[in-house]
Amino acid sequence: MAALFSACQSSEKKDDSQIRLITLDPGHFHAALVQKTTYEGVDPVVHVYAPEGPDLQMHLDRIQGYNTRAENPTRWKEEVYKGADFLEKMLAEKSGNVVVISGNNRLKTDYIRKAVDGGFNVLADKPMVISASNFDQLKAAFESAEKNDKLLYDIMTERYEITTMLQRAFSMQPEVFGTLEKGTPDNPAITKESVHHFYKNVSGSILTRPAWFMDVAQQGEGIVDVTTHLVDLVQWEAFPEQTIDYTKDIRLTSARRWTTDMTLSQFSAITKQNAFPDYLKKDVEKDSVLKVFSNGEINYQVRGVNARVSVIWAYKAPEGAGDTHYSIMRGTKANLIIRQGAEQQYKPTLYIEAVAGNAGLEAALKTALPALQQEYPGVEVKKNGKGYEVVIPEKFKEGHEAHFGRVTEKYLSFLKAGKMPAWEVPNMLAKYYTTTQALELAKKTAGPVASR
């Protein structure tokens, strides 16, 4: 472990056994969620380097909220440097050994590269890169991390969502699932769709989003943003713990993008700003409607397996509705389907449905369940009209915010070991190659596509 931290020492004597966090320019609330819990072996003092402004203040307010909550309060102490030279100051002071980066995506790839080159480990929110022109910079950052014996990792929270974990687990039971179909572009073997909303009520108040969240030059288009999670899950589920080589294993079929339209009053409701800032004027039509390229769809193959991922951002969910997710893995014996609609009360639910001609699903489940229950005690299946619903104990149903702690704990275990699984880095590169190349392809696709 000494080698892991050797480049991160300042003149002040530090405890080499501790992880010391740095937060760089926190512009997204995910930066705070990393600190929603405390971790053994992590110094409670966190150094923050950022420009002065509302993004920084909202971040500090969230940390203070965790420190002062009634149940399980945290004990973080934020040491803040505010100034235009915040990045240079961070690189020079070396006040920690792990940099957490979650904010404006236009700057993120550059931040990652400079932090790794400066001798820091990096835990970065997705997406690490939002354009094909910056992909080589991200690739160079991974090469620098390897050379400097540092660990660069992105925050893939959706791997810790229980229905997704169980979808993957059941797909690895050949007596239940069979083998993964190859599919076709029109009928993929794997489909993942998610619907999100700009306007959200969180804990009784409307979530305030920074105005730049609607600027695709800063946040990234939808096809390279949330889609990152879906592309990651395709690889993680279809090829568990296998290395994907983007130079030969990925082939794009088609990609498309389209806008979500937002009036000034709608924009004001979520940003608390009364006018569109100048950097958004390029996307404003007739001085009144902001057109955000927040939606995207990618059709592609991974090692010959056809997959489709799509992300849709609506402005606001219908009354009583919420974000939704749909996912299907098609096997030769059964399909594994996650639905999260009105019928499921907008809670993700996993179903197992036999393919035509397979009459042995019930017997196969009886054989496979005991092994799965070793890892997921209490998981059962119950019959319904189409097949089986997977019954999941409440203890496994953690919210999205809790998953940030899970990712951080996993990353800390990598730091302790001094390495990550061999497949993680090539698969991160494969993921970002897929999303950034899909954006290039979508931009070349002729004709606008209306929101659906």
Question: Nutshell version of this structure?
Answer:
With 452 residues, the chain is α/β, with parallel strands linked by helices. Helices cover 33% and strands 24% of the residues.
CATH superfamily caption of the largest domain: Dihydrodipicolinate Reductase, domain 2
Query: What is the residue-averaged pLDDT?
Result: 93
Shape: globular
Summed up, the helix count is: 14
Number of domains: 2
Task: Please give the radius of gyration in angstroms.
Answer: 22 Å
Number of strands: 18
CATH architectural type of the largest domain = 2-Layer Sandwich
Task: Return residue spans where pLDDT drops below 50 for at least 5 consecutive residues.
Answer: 1-13, 447-452
Cα separation of the termini: 52 Å
Mind describing the biggest β-sheet? 10 strands, mixed
Q: Helical amount among residues, as a percent range?
A: 25-40%
**Structural class, from secondary structure content?**
alpha/beta
Report the CATH C-level class of the largest domain.
Alpha Beta
Strand content: 15-25%
